[in-house]
Fold this protein.
Amino acid sequence: MSGSLLSFAGVTGGYGATTVVRGVGGAVAAGEACCVLGRNGVGKTTLMRLLTGHLPLQSGTVDFAGRSLDGLAPDRRHRLGLVYCPQERPVFDNLSVRDNLGLMEPFDAHRHAPLLAAFPILEARMDQSAGTLSGGERKILSFVRGVAETGQLLLLDEPSEGVQQENVERMAGFLHEAKAAGRALLVVEQNLAFAREIADRVMVMDHGAVVLAGAAADITEDTLAAHMHV
Amino acid sequence: MASFLAHSAALVAALAVLPHLVGEFWAYTLALYFLYAIAALGVGLCWGQAGLLPLGQAMFFGLAAYLSGLSLIHFRDSWLLLLLLPGAALAPGLLAWGIGLLVFRGRTLTGPFFAMITLALTLLAFQIANSWNDVTGGFNGLKNIPGLPGLGDFIDLYYVSAAALAACVLGIAWLRRAPAGILWRAVAQNEQRVRFCGFAVQNAKAAVFGISGALAGIGGALYAPQQSLVTPQLCGFILSADLVIWAAVGGRSTLYGPVAGAVLIGILTADLRDEISYWEVILAAIFIVVVLYFRQGLMGFVEPWFERLWRRPAGRGRDGPDRPVAPSEAGFALDDIRVRMGSVSILEGLDLAVDRPGIYCLIGPNGAGKTSCFNAMTGEMPVRGGQIRIFGRDRAGATADSLSRIGVGRKFQAPSLFPEFTVAENFNIGLWGGRARLPDLLRMRSHSWSSAILREAQTRFPFLADEDRRAGDLSHGQRQILELVMVLIAEPRLILLDEPSAGLSQAETREVIEAIRWVGGRLDACTVIVEHDMTFVRELADRVFVLHQGRLLASGTVAEIQADERVRAVYVGASA
Amino acid sequence: MDPILTTNVLNVVYEVSTLAVVVLGLAVVFGLLGVMNLAHGEFVMIGAYCAFFVQAHDLPFLAAVPLALLVCGFLGLVVERVLVRPLYARPFDTLLATWGLGMLLREAVEAVYGRGFRSVATPLTGSVEVLGADYPAYRLLLTLVSVALVAGLVWWFVRSATGRRIRAVVNNPELAASVGIPVTALARNTFVFGCGLAALSGVMLAPLLPVNPTLGLDFILKSFFVLVVGGLGSLVGLISGSGVIGGVESVVSAVSDRTWGYTTVLVIAILFLWLRPNGLFPRT
């Protein structure tokens, strides 16, 4: 797809000899959000790990801003502009909240100010270790870290998991701002309402493959629910 | 059997002819290195088969040498020697076995810790030998130990060493082929699966360490009369290290590797140490290269070729013995189960009961405690409160292997089997579990046990009939099915399956669904399945349990669950 | 205070603090890379031989410090690339390979300098009066330097950006790579740093030890025991581990003799390995 910031095709991979993701393709353009949906265990997180370089591709291609990411380590991909907020263990438990936010560049109150103002729960705990935060608070911290970074592509793996509704709404607000600023979003979600709120396009996965893809507006809630849950 | 006899004859003939070829001096040198080779065989067995690196084998070698030296000094011409010398060889074996039982009891001690314990023990043994002057002669050791009565020249000594070596090599060759050897290699590959097949892994490990200690003991007991001098160095770190290097360079997982390593390197070292000043450096470099690139060592290049000569003919014969009588009462009951990990509460008063055969599905969002529920039931996670009853009896604190023996089978989410083994060997471990008694584990006949369930499974899944394939070469879906069948041929009455369709394609999922349905009926068992795929649940479940935040949220038929508002709320997102 | 008691207390402090410096290098490498470098003791040994080399060539003692850092830093660089990095996924083989490396270094030094004990002259002779007891000045200096070194490194580890990144990698390597920490380079630098620290302690201890090729063996075992007793989790663990192992050895040695001191340490180590393999302060 032309104009895409990230495009991938035939992505296949998994753990060791086990293939979890089978031939998945897709693309995200600047200023656009793509949501990856699907029930647990269908390979969404594995797809994210394949795209960010934490797992090797068995086959397929991943291109970012016109260049192939083949063989690049995760830290190199980060430098090119891939910002990844993983689903599990999203923060450094042994560092303070402030150090989590200022690990690579010195903590900048100004850069983080709007985010911290929106999530006062973090601001109150700047000097506590992140290990003392609840699961939802960790996800917020991870979200703030990712959004505050400058990379052009945000890959968020279930950012709303365990997060209270009002904070999920604030997250959606920041993601809209990020899109407006020309950033691209690839978001794995299970929260349908949140996904519908932010997504321009949707990919539904099952058994490691994409079973449904298209513009978010064209896909009804019932169709989605039928692919995912009860 | 025939190939074993041929192997024995060839070995004995070679050892008998050797001194005539190399002459008396070399025969004498060889006699010494044969003794080291016997100890190195023990390292190979322990490390190369069971994956336990013993860094302190010299402690057993030295102990036996002291015991045999003291016996020879104090009971020189007494008939008691007939008891004392074998005793000197066996005592280190018993000591090693005892250490193994203590060290491996009740926990899965990781390899490096075991290695370090043995290292520290050998250092301790050296300290004792070095400072217990009254008994060991301290730093100078035991001197002027008389030789074995009735033996005269160097050639006699050679034949004693050679006979001991031949006996040990053949004994180990047998063990490696026997089910016991398969089990040791299985422990090295996947200890958890071995436990869940009903084997007390700690006993298997203690046994292999005991045997390796006895082998070092045989070498040490013969060393004293042969060299007539025993010093503390014999218990020390250097000899321990040498034994490991010999086994590694020769090939730790091959039969003849440790022998080749001990004899070749030992003799080269004795010969070259003075001529090439950097010999030891070269040796260390060779060791590093072997560790990095040639884990099979020297014999790794040769032995596979010989292995083919005495391959066990494939095929299955009679059925193995029946499982012990099945429990009369089916099902299980969890009452107010509480599990914590660190500060996180995982199960908070889970109640769950199943009292008649059928297929039950356990669903719930991430972190609901589904897998933890299985872990608590099978003793993999400490339970802090509540009661677990399985087959009508309280099973709190029961271990995975004991539960497996009474008829609890568990399949893990990622296929947990023995990837280095053939399909046949994987089946065998499943078949032996709960059926094989100790003598069966030493008999070759046990390799060809069969069972009705196995035959049915092979008809149903034809790929399982090709038993010579390596399990690791199967596809993910095939491995899921292989593990499932391994669990089933143990004929459990309670079957716990953790996401059996995870990572499977649609077609493979269909096969798994059929397999589960077939077996549930065939064994009249309670099958409990953790699953996310609602298609799967809809097809199979007689009843569904929904877990949420470590508790039971709802239970009922699929239709009831689908209609339940609380369940919908949990699934569509706590926040939506 | 009773002078004899003072001397003994100072001995314990000396033993514990110098041991802590040796262990620190090992612990940082293990914490970050999950690599137990069994050749760590040989780097200490090479450091000590650097001091001997400097003395044999009539250079000032302090010249041994840059020499040892250079030699061991370079060795560390090569070892990391050739031995450690290819074996990240095989921790058990790393143990064996570094053990082989230790042997190689031991034998190489032996081939050059022989097996005999070498002595390095104390750069600081005389003694200082501390609370009524005469205590050798160099030992006292060494104790102070060791305490300062450990404290300084700890301070750096907690406060510097690099220290934070190392802690981040230890806690969550995957996330660390995701946020852009160059994990491979950091691992290499840390390994080299650990080797350098070992070399430095070798130089410092050389005047007080019979310098010989097997000197490292004692250190690696003791260091390993410190990690076992203290646990691999934290600094508190490291210091308490050094305290238990170094303290027990020097106290028992003072009361009885060195053999008993060593034997007691072995017994404690075995008990910990067996009954409490995660140590006093396990990693969470």
User: Anything to note?
Assistant: The two ends of chain A are 34 Å apart (CA to CA). Chain A has nine helices and ten strands. Chain A has a mean pLDDT of 88. Residues 99 and 107 of chain A are 7 Å apart (CA to CA).
